[in-house]
Amino acid sequence: MFTSLKRVLKFGWQGFLRNKGLSSQVIFIMTIAVLVITSLFIFKELSNFLIAEAQKKVDVSVYFKKDTSEESILEVKEGLYKFSAEIEDVQYTSREKAQEIFLQKHKDDPLYLEALEEVGENPFLASLNIRAKDPTFYAQISNFLTQGIFKNLIEKVSYYENKKIIDRLFALTSNIKTAGILLSLILGILVVLITFNTVKLTIFTSKDEIATMRLVGASNWFIRGPFLVQSFLYGIFAVLIADLIFFGGLSFLNSGLENWILGFNFLNYFQENFLFLILIQIGFAFALGTFSSLLAVRKYLKV
Fold first, then answer.
1. How many Å apart are CA 110 and CA 82, to the nearest integer?
2. Which CATH number among 3.40.50.150, 3.50.30.10, 3.40.50.300, 3.30.70.3040 corresponds to the domain 58-169?
């Protein structure tokens, strides 16, 4: 058993070194495959990050009538806890705080300050700023406020003004997720087909060797073994090269990409998830190489 395994490893290594040109081609193709798969995982994380950032920019504000007491507003805030599964955060802003924010924002703009002095009293309304976990929840929350027991306290809800933006955001998030799935499927199929044909070509060059081994009574698994060893070597080298390309490229481009894509740190993501990514890469490369080798050698074994 040990002797057979030793021979399989030896023949696999020798075959890997003997066909340097074809081995280089397979490693090149598998490196591209690993780069594609890793990029898809990073793209998925980037999509989730961009969606989350976009959702942070969209919220709903509930403005209360001037004579509404703070206790009543806080009671509304408590009432919103029935949506605890849908609501990310609720912030209360009093009339005084709203005026203070306005003055701070326009402290260098005398036109706004003069207009506020002309009004005399505080014209701002107390409000609750609501941020939902998903844009689809805003309609339900708004209906609860405008049609429920608190409707007489409320001056207006900004959801109806922002509805077009919220709907567009929902459509955008859905389109990004759908595009990501379709892209993954298309690239995955292309990668498998290209790798399979490349591995098949390397095994074709060994068809006489396979026929000879069959004639001398070698078992199917003894014949398959060296090709599986070669597939493993292809995968290991492909993963090493792909990770070097990723690490080198991200180290050089990360700061520019981070500024361009709303602060998403590609290098940090790659480093923090390196163990997970390398396990995915090795598993994918080995599975792809093994599947391609077994399928390609099957023809010559006539199993």
1. 44
2. 3.30.70.3040
